[in-house]
């Protein structure tokens, strides 16, 4: 029998399968009785689970990030699917197929990395090629970069999401390059690659996805500039000659301005064509990914509309079946 | 001897060539003496000219929209080039080469129109093909659509600019289509074609480019919906069957929401993937065109920066020569 | 014995009367037991009802929009009155007095329609009279116009509310006409009549009040312009002569700008005296109606203050009994 | 021969008439030569005048606020009419007809004051009647109230404008009273009377119209509350009984909230029906007066549009001649 | 045995102690059973308590503001500590130690009052000294001023908070005086003393802390100006000579502008150096007090971060134990 | 005879003295004649000068940043003092007294540097002492830090202004330290020292004060973080032990958040007590300096008000002479 994926669970479905646990809490209800609340996820999404009348023993029998086998029933509650668990037990990681729990299978990640290398090595500017190589050769960087999500909520918020977002953006850049000859394609391409690298340390994603302390206090925009400066030093040492100041400045400016407006935490507005293009294309890729997910995961399956999302100040129109 | 184009005039250059006149005014200076002020343009841009101690006779010797031969001297004044005219006389349209005065030569317009037809006929949805055909067959519409600018100021603000903007946007849509399979490419393509059609009547561009009364009181967004409704009726009559209501609704929604935010006069926020994509890509195409122009026309040739532009709240970085 | 109206129900009152059902839902509570939730309304307002331990049989025994007889108890819960139902059964529409369920009795609606005709026929401008007549003669239009609410929430949010709002506004226009001779009273009067007509299709109000798909995607402002254009064509055919372009433009402009500010979804700011006046008077009539309702329906009867309403960013002062 | 009023001066008209001088300045031009600049006004408006090569003697020969006879020529300069003066001499106030210099003739003011008394004495609430009487009996107050403008720029910005604005607003209140029975008409009427009384000391208007120091540092809203408190004490002493606290509170609240939004310097948002109504009606009366003036005084007589007014972020549509 | 203070209660602690009751409510739960909800406080903070299956007898056995002895258990519920009460009975005020219930012990208040007098009498300007004396001598004023909180929520929201905030601010003013010789230290000092005095009547704090009606309708800023005007009259009578108008104006301006921006309900922006300084220092003192409290009272003791506070749009960083 | 300082020049004063030239431009007037425009400054301020009918020879006879002897006349033009020059010649730097041209004399700078060292060495945290020492020992840094202005316009916009602003802020921090024991005084002190160090490279101030390219594209906030990181590495090498990560994080956070709000280009909001305090005190020091200057330099000497300053959206009240 095949696996029950989170995004396939329907109202009143009996559930018996393995998930990753996170954010476990032992909480009293209004009357003082304890219950266990825990997030369960696989590669298709996450669902909130509750186990009534739970003991501290159950609570302590597993850690956040563990694989757990859960038995219970799915049920729609206040517009969202939740799981009423009756049994929950830790499972040996050896027994599970990791690909069920990573939105992008390893083989897919490997392909994306190959693609990344091809695109970066396809740049014409030898300075940028050299700089890109320093990132590609940095194993610690690449491990994080291929594993990090692009956010906690919002767009590409899953392991591998950052890589997928960067590749998608770079692909778009390559395709529309001929439309805008006044844009330096190489600069925009490396900007698409590097614009969000600060997120590899802004976020923690070892077991559960969280903001790190420095992520919250400093932010990925400022952190990315430091990472770039370090790699520029390496690249110049490697090449034995400096990267033109102008080139470095233009890359930094893309990093610093890619949120596009002050109100979104951008310390600078885009002032070069590449920075302007990066800002709109980043927005395009992020919003299409995010809105598509909001539509496909909307629990309100009978309606052509998603429910109202306050952070984007609107409902989305899923449309009527043809 | 070849023509002196507006964008080639340098400080102290002697000028003797033909331009289109617009916005002529006979004005007194502080001391009460009359001078003539007039905008002169060719396909590369426009320049403000003044003729000191001008008489009413000169003022009445030509109309806005006429070709005039001007003699005088170019000079940099308060950061902008202007022309001090000493002679100015009407010229017979027969004597001029029209292509010097249209940013896009007729042969180029013809190519763009062919391109437009190809792209629209390449759509898979027969309803949309049929609808598009009704626009293409409407001579009065096409005459305006291929001649109109995309604005008075800002982006693509020249004859043929609207067509060029639409084609450029449609080209981008076709290229990035494969990156976003969740987007209905045909819908987005026809959205790119139609989003600004209201501008053919929002603007007047017969002799000079102005806002029409209905353009200012109603606006191209609302006007475009009326044009679409009319063509939908035609297309349905032609095909003998209705276009699905859902399809028409989704196109209208793209028209109505493509400014993206209430503060930019958008009565609705984008609520479908196609509307979201159209909004960002329209912005990309418009801003790249506009900023590129601000940079290339910046009179401050010695500085890597343009002067400050209040409407975009920033200077732009033109960069240093390599 | 007289009817128990919704707005007269007090804490712990036993209830046994007929209401209109809407938005019925069969929902599990935290423990997984099903309960029925349903909105009950009559002409004085709406109340949320719950029936514990409800079966699917009960849920299926009536439809949204049906009349149902309900037995149970009213109770104040978290600042709002709700009804705990113990019995609920469908009732034959023949047995009920429709006037108990429409905020405005039919006889009252009839009077308002007469009033509408009188005011419109009292205009001096024959073009406007003719145009108005085309609306009055359109039975399908009038059926919707006299039945539609003016909104889902906010002001005049009940069947007949749109008509009542229009009449109230037209009444104000007639009264203050002499104060502002520089305003064209006829134009303002027809603007008051037509400004919200888009709502007859923006909203659905057959059984329950909802936004239609086109209402959400296009909006009543843009929709109203299309309705007006159609009627202008009819009126011109009827009269055998065109309505002056200027007149049509000024009416359209009132429709398009009556929300007054971009942030409220107005694609244009008011630029004529009539548009300015319409905007302020519409706001006056809407806000007085809305705030008056918030005060009179505030469940917090012991306090001189209503509770805080986030959408208007304030509490309202009901005052102290004299 | 009849007087040449400011609003009748056309381009190139020879001028020889008497005006009130204000804001006189002796200024050097770029080359260091002195010229005299001075505002000239009569009851129809104001015009800026310049006298080239003026001496200090001329400058000292009159004071701001004096009547001066001016000879010269009117001329359109940068979209505004100005006057090039060749002669300028002080005139004895005895020789002029004061009514030429006050927008509202004294006989008209007298009528308005009678009207004010009638409306206030027509209130049903004896407390409010008594309070109003204390204002009407205060000669010093009434002198200022009947003479003050309602602003320096914007609406009703002329001597007598405050009175005219108050009466106009009170008239509207009386007319629409029957439309809104839930509003306390007496409260709203006295609110219309008192809402701007702080302006009698916020502005100075003895010779020229200026903001006073306390006007700028404290503002008419806060100042009005102090005036009201003083009159409440007087009224209570006079009547020998207190005005109900609730009544005073509601009047104060109208004064304090009538600007409607924080961004317009309103320390409170309107929270009673009377305050809400006052805010919209005040806005209506002020904007109709202001926009009407912008249209009728627009120097651009050939265009259906006024020029762009940055403070209202729009042009206004004057329309085409029928 | 020593007292159990609110801020020391931990999850599952048995509680048996005396608190002040406020905001008592008898409410039905979803199933219609009644429970009692009441706020309990002492000088260290407040906690929400619930007593299940409460009778009306219990509800009526005490009033808001009474001392009550409570038995029950503390428990963490949805991120906040609450108290499940099993017994609750009124206690004679004689039996309690008042200092346990006032955040600032009386002896501490007395010291602050002495400090206040010293600082005010240390001013060099005799007019200001005299004016200050009139406030200090007004017993009714001083009783309120030393007892009032500085707010309901936010900063210094406890009895005595207003006094503490004023003294803290005055202390800062005295310390940094020498850094800014261009600021009139006496003016700034009396501004620091008076800026929030309107709060003594804007708030009620007899038994529970609430906004008064006039507090909500008029606001402490406008109310403070009236209080100042009254004391100026007294001081002038006392001294037999007027306080310079300029001085009074500058104090009023500080009161009127100390919120610094229109959006915070400030009718005027700071336009003198003293008003500018007061605004920033008031903000500093208020925010340090408020944020410090948010951190120290954050229930999330294991995290270096407080939870997200929507009103300040951020989390706060408490930091990691050294 | 003593020097004529810029801030002492009055209308019609004959001028013959030495100034620093900057921003020289040779410009045609409307009629095409050339004139020279140049900024002249000394330590008390700057004045714009014009020399009519200037030749290219004069223009080339000096460079921006040179000392020039100027003869001519001061004159008030459009509310600002300007200088009409008749003669202008380069002067040997040897002949001038440098202290006349630096707002802070060298001896004063030396004192401030001593003061800086004392305050930093007075910190209790050895890590912070060590870090500070690395900055103090870096000659290249200190040369720039003691010479840089704190801005181009706005506050402390003169050579030495950055140092003066830092010292003033640190002084305030030390004085109010005892008022807020919950604030880490050492952290706040080093934050006050470092918060604006990015300005040493954001601005160029060798001859004239300008924004550098990286200053405009990256900004001092992001640049400061890079400087800090470098010095942290040095300090850790020097001390042979790491500075606690928490400490570095808290300093970085102060740099990154000190603009306080997103709209002012702050990528993060202040989330620690030290960051909150730094933001308000920085604002206090900057605004008092800036507003004080606007008042003392206001050319409108007869008025108690400065003219309107659009960037701060207000006039300032200078007050009346006692």
Q: How do the helices and strands line up, and which of them pair or pack?
A:
6 copies of one chain form a homohexamer.
Chain A: E1 14-28, E2 34-42, E3 45-51, H1 56-60, E4 67-77, E5 80-91, H2 106-121, H3 126-137, H4 139-145, H5 161-176, H6 185-194, H7 199-202, E6 203-204, E7 210-211, H8 213-217, H9 220-239, H10 245-257, H11 273-296
Parallel strand pairs in A: 3-5
Antiparallel strand pairs in A: 1-2, 1-4, 2-3, 4-5, 6-7
**Radius of gyration of CA atoms of chain A, rounded to a whole number:** 22 Å
Average pLDDT of chain A, to the nearest integer?
Answer: 91
Largest sheet of chain A: 5 strands, mixed, barrel
Instruction: Give the ordered list of helices and strands of chain A.
Output: EEEHEEHHHHHHEEHHHH
The largest beta-sheet of chain A arranges its strands as 1-2-3-5-4
Provide the structure class of chain A. Answer: alpha+beta
Quaternary structure annotation:
homohexamer
Annotation field: number of helices of chain A: 11
> Which descriptor suits the 3D outline of chain A?
elongated
Report the portion of residues of chain A in β strands. Answer: 15-25%
> Segments of chain A where pLDDT lies below 50 for 5+ residues?
none
Distance between termini of chain A?
32 Å
| Estimated helix fraction of chain A | 40-55%
